[in-house]
Design brief:
Blueprint lengths: L1 H14 L12 H12 L5 E5 L2 H7 L3 H11 L6 E5 L4 H8 L21 H7 L5 H10 L4 H5 L7 H9 L5 H13 L3 H12 L5 H8 L3 H13 L3 E4 L14 E4 L2 H10 L3 H4 L5 H29 L11 E11 L4 E11 L4 E8 L7 H11 L6 E8 L5 H10 L1 E5 L8 E3 L5
Parallel strand pairs: 1-2, 7-8, 8-9
Antiparallel strand pairs: 3-4, 5-6, 6-7, 9-10
Helix pairs in contact: 2-4, 10-11, 11-12, 17-18
GO molecular function: ATP binding; hydrolase activity
Protein name: ATP-binding protein
Pfam families: ATPase_2 (PF01637), DUF234 (PF03008)
Length: 421
């Protein structure tokens, strides 16, 4: 068995770094016995089994065997066992799940999160912050996907080489992951496509996919568990057990990019027609980056939670808001809404990822919509990719609005004090 041979080689190489070749252990059981013995000679022996799901599928008895050795041998030894896996459904159900032979034997669990912008900047120190932000967004912050991007190429070239080339990994990655993690991958793909096309409520997704609304919930729950889709509520509804304002959005950046720009153009890509698609992607990218900039802006405010110059009283909730405006008689949205514990301070913000400065009318609209909330003290924030017009800066000074811009020279958006007169 190839897995046993590689496992044997790793053990022998640990004992003797000059090891090149030798006999394999007769079985995994024999290898584990040897490791238990070997751990007695060390202060601590660390055993890491990467991509454990692949080993378990190739050799199903491995989980029960590990259970036995953990219970009867490893607990008394100085052996530290780490199981890793990229298949979240397998790790959660067949390693951590109640029915797993390994249930109850963990000392800790870690779910690795995507790279933040700061993490990605360290990945690409030679690129400016805007370029890193865009690459991190379209790859979902996954280190493997980021490693495919060349810092020597333009964003357009990286997109073409990694998403619009049929032999590229990311061209086939979404369907590959759905096939790996889920039954009925075609149904799940149609659901993600519907959300990418603008269907956000369960009834809308049902209409677009043809899946009955009642039958849709398990599909959505599975996509949420995998981190591909997220359930979203207005910040004012977060404490409610149920809400009619629930919507669904694609959470994973790579999936969102692929289903927004690649999935429905596969027939063109497979015929080598990529330049018009690239033109469209580059033109629409600011719109795609908008929600990513909203998240970054919200994260920035969370990072300043105890900075009284920016946040007078710590907020307990902060997020997006959408709902009816009785005066306008229509549904409106706000990028940032938050409240302190006593609801004495309200925090209201707008975020614009555009190649033009924010004008005063954006701030005027923000002030107007903030009146939908009866907080005595209102704090305003504008987040911009490129800056603010003179009129906007003048109005910001009058209403004490904080102006925050995306700055490629710093590891996080830089705080700009309201301009002095």
């Amino acid at each position: 068995m190839e897995n046993l041979a590689r496992f044997s080689d790793a053990i022998h190489a640990y004992e003797d770094p000059s090891y090149l070749d030798g006999p394999n252990f007769a079985s995994f059981e024999q290898a584990f016995k040897y490791l238990a013995h070997l751990s007695e000679k060390n202060d601590r022996l660390i055993l890491v089994i990467d991509e454990f799901p692949y080993l378990a599928k190739a050799y199903p008895p491995i989980s029960s065997m590990l259970q036995s050795y953990i219970d009867h041998y490893f607990k008394q030894k100085k052996l530290f066992l780490i199981l890793c896996g990229s298949s979240m459904s397998f790790m959660e159900k067949r390693v951590l799940g109640y029915k797993s032979p390994l249930y109850g034997r963990k000392t800790a669990q870690f779910k690795l999160k995507p790279f933040s912008l700061h993490d990605a900047e360290e990945f690409f120190p030679q690129l400016n912050k805007e370029e890193v932000f865009e690459l991190n967004a379209i790859t979902g912050g996954i280190p493997l996907y980021l490693s495919l991007m060349s810092p020597k190429k333009s964003l357009r070239e990286n997109i073409k080489d990694n998403f619009l080339t049929t032999s590229a990994m990311l061209y086939a990655e979404p369907m590959s992951l759905l096939n790996q993690e889920l039954r009925e991958p075609a149904s799940y793909s149609s659901i993600i496509s519907a959300i990418a096309a603008g269907a956000s409520r369960q009834s809308e997704i049902s209409t677009k996919t043809g899946i009955a609304s009642g039958a849709l919930s398990p599909y959505l729950d599975n996509l949420i568990d995998l981190g591909i889709v997220e359930k979203r509520l207005p910040v004012t509804e977060l404490d409610k057990a149920r809400s009619r304002k629930t919507i669904y959005a694609i959470k994973d950046g790579m999936f969102r990019f692929w289903y927004t720009f690649v999935g429905k153009r596969v027939s063109f890509i497979e015929r080598g027609i990529t330049e018009p698609i690239l033109d469209y992607i580059i033109k629409q990218l600011p719109h795609f980056m908008g929600p990513e900039f909203e998240k970054l802006s919200q994260e920035y405010l969370w990072s300043k939670l105890f900075d009284p110059d920016l946040v007078p009283e710590p907020f307990v909730n902060l997020g997006n808001w959408w709902g009816p405006d009785p005066k306008e008689k229509k549904q409106v949205e706000m990028d940032i809404v938050g409240f302190d514990d006593q609801k004495l301070n309200g925090y209201f913000g707008e975020c614009k990822w555009k190649n033009e400065p924010i004008s005063a009318d954006i701030l005027e609209t923000l002030i107007y919509r903030s009146r939908l909330f009866p907080t005595p003290k209102k704090n305003y924030y504008l987040f911009s990719k490129t800056g603010f017009t003179d009129k906007c800066q003048q109005l910001a000074q009058q209403v004490d609005c904080h102006l925050i811009t995306f700055d490629s020279k710093h590891p996080i958006a830089r705080y700009l004090s309201p301009p002095s007169q």
